[in-house]
């Protein structure tokens, strides 16, 4: 049955491709007939998906021991649902949570994104929301920030941070500081090599340190000292990195794992860990924001204010700055370091592409030890294409999400309000109907005017989301990755001999094998 279903979907896609290509009048007539056939939208109840059972609904599928849909691997679940049910799948019976709707068609993604309204509703991580609005309401005082708030409150939060974090001029102002962090990291690489020229087993942790040090320069307006020699396991930077790992693990369990329907009823083990970790993040962020406020009082008048100072000027309430710092720290360590790891792996496995990139960098950076400037980055077309292609193949966040606020038509079904729609961009990015040889790393497909350029639907690949609710730290993450990758690939040649890399796909799609890269100085 599943095989027949897949064949039917393939045939439908082939017909749609012919129609889009603008074939003969015969095909045009078929298009008109097809449009007439599907015009009356079908009811929501007709959408295929796993069937709920009495009393438990579909909640039992999230319980430990249920193996058909293993929600510890979200990419695998997306693949299973698509193969079993097709381009739109309903997961109902999840009360008190909203129904889940999985969509695998970029046309539906575009419809969803273009009809999200003035205040797009993105399903919040419920544990974050509960912590800020209930558990620690005395501290947050009703302010959830861009990750938690909805409606007018979200618009107010975004109003404060958007002109600062999304403005190109302010982002570029940080290039020298982020370059300084990257240089400190790259200088340590020769000392990490063993007798086989391999990186140590804990190289992943070193990348996390780089990511934390980089984002702290922006969020906390300070150097934390993550790249200091012999970082103590009990030091603040290492505890922050450990806290992020713990956070991602327990959040998965609280949101879609075995405790998803329990922690608001009883304090489960994951919830207790979550509160402890979040309290630590609040403590550290609050401390550093207050220190930044004191430093700003003695800042020379001719010195450009930092992003943190600009935010405090827009809203003197330090709580808003603490929440911004919290969001950036928690979202900017694992995601950025994993994204960097993925592009390093792709370049290591595709030595011809690495050599093309090195040639570009050698031309732009004749002195390999010179600071990477914004002017240099403006010329790095192939570098940017490598990052974009890696994010297509291995996005750290495999799905975007929105909640319907009014009835909308997707795949010719009527979708009611209050349905959480998961836009499975990670899986769609590997469909052959969207990209030629989708499993291959081909950066050239993103270079305008190149003979291998592809003009894919822009709603297929959305690593940073889309629209008003796209990732608020997107520009800083891109700057960090471009600078460090330029330095690493300009000075060293990288190989990875222990592939294929193993991944774990929970709330983030993360590499889990040791990062024992082999490194040769250029």
Brief write-up:
By secondary structure, the protein is of the alpha+beta class.
Principal-axis shape: globular
C-alpha Rg, in Å?
Answer: 24 Å
Average pLDDT figure: 90
Helix/strand/pairing category: alpha+beta
> DSSP helix count?
21
Tell me the fraction of residues in β-strands, as a range. 5-15%
Structure description:
The radius of gyration is 24 Å and the shape is globular. The strands form four sheets. Strands 1-2-6-3 form a four-stranded mixed beta sheet, sandwiched between helices. A two-stranded antiparallel ribbon has the order 4-5. It has a two-stranded antiparallel sheet with strand order 7-10. Strand 4 and strand 5 (413-415) form a beta hairpin. It has helices at 2-21, 25-38, 74-85, 106-114, 126-135, 137-140, 151-165, 168-173, 175-186, 189-192, 203-219, 236-255, 269-296, 307-314, 318-331, 334-349, 351-364, 374-378, 381-393, 425-428, 474-491, and strands at residues 88-91, 99-103, 400-403, 408-410, 413-415, 419-423, 492-495, 503-505, 509-511, 518-521. The chain has 21 helices and ten strands. With 522 residues, the chain is an alpha+beta fold. The protein has a single domain, classed as Cytochrome P450 (Cytochrome p450, Orthogonal Bundle), CATH 1.10.630.
């Amino acid at each position: 049955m599943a095989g027949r279903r897949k064949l039917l979907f393939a045939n439908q896609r082939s017909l749609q491709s012919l129609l889009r290509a603008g074939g003969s009048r015969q095909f045009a007539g078929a298009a008109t007939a097809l449009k007439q056939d599907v015009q009356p939208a079908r009811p929501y109840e007709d959408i295929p998906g796993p069937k709920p059972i009495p009393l438990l609904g579909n909640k039992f599928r999230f319980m430990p021991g249920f193996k058909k849909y293993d929600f510890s691997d979200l990419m695998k679940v997306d693949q299973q649902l698509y193969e079993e049910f097709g381009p739109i799948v309903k997961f109902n019976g999840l009360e008190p949570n909203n129904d889940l709707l999985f969509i695998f068609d970029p046309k539906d993604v575009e419809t969803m994104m273009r009809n999200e309204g003035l205040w797009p509703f993105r399903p919040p991580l419920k544990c974050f929301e509960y912590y800020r609005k209930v558990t620690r309401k005395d501290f947050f005082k009703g302010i959830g920030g861009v990750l938690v708030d909805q409606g007018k409150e979200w618009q107010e939060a975004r109003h404060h941070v958007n002109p600062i974090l999304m403005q190109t001029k302010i982002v570029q102002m940080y290039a020298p500081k982020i370059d300084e962090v990257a240089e400190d990291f790259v200088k340590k690489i020769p000392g990490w090599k063993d007798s086989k020229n391999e990186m140590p087993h804990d190289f992943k942790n070193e990348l996390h340190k780089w990511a934390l040090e980089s984002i702290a320069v922006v969020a906390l307006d300070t150097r934390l000292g993550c790249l200091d020699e012999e970082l103590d396991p009990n030091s603040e930077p290492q505890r922050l990195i450990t806290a992020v790992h713990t956070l991602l693990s327990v959040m998965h369990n609280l949101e879609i794992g075995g405790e998803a329907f329990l922690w608001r009823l009883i304090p489960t083990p994951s919830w207790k860990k979550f509160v402890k970790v979040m309290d630590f993040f609040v403590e550290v962020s609050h401390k550093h924001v207050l220190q930044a406020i004191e430093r700003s009082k003695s800042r020379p008048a001719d010195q450009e204010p930092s992003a943190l100072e600009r935010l405090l000027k827009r809203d003197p309430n330090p709580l808003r700055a603490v929440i911004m710092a919290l969001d950036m720290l928690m979202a900017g360590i694992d995601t950025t370091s994993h994204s960097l790891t993925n592009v390093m792996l792709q370049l290591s496995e595709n030595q011809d592409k690495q050599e093309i990139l090195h040639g570009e960098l050698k031309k732009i950076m004749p002195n390999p030890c010179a600071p990477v400037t914004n002017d240099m980055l403006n010329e790095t077309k192939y570098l940017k294409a490598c990052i974009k292609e890696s994010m297509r193949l291995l996005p750290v966040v495999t799905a975007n999400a929105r909640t319907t606020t009014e009835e909308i038509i997707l795949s010719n079904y009527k979708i009611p309000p209050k349905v959480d729609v998961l836009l499975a961009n990670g899986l769609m990015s590997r469909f052959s109907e969207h990209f030629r040889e989708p499993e291959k790393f081909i950066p050239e497909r993103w270079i305008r005017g190149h003979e291998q350029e592809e003009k894919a639907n822009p709603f297929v690949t959305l690593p940073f989301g889309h629209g008003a609710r796209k990732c608020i730290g997107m520009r800083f993450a891109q700057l960090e990755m471009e600078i460090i990758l330029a330095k690493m690939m300009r000075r060293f040649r990288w190989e990875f001999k222990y592939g294929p890399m193993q991944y774990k796909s929970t709330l983030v799609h993360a590499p889990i094998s040791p990062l024992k890269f082999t490194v040769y100085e250029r």
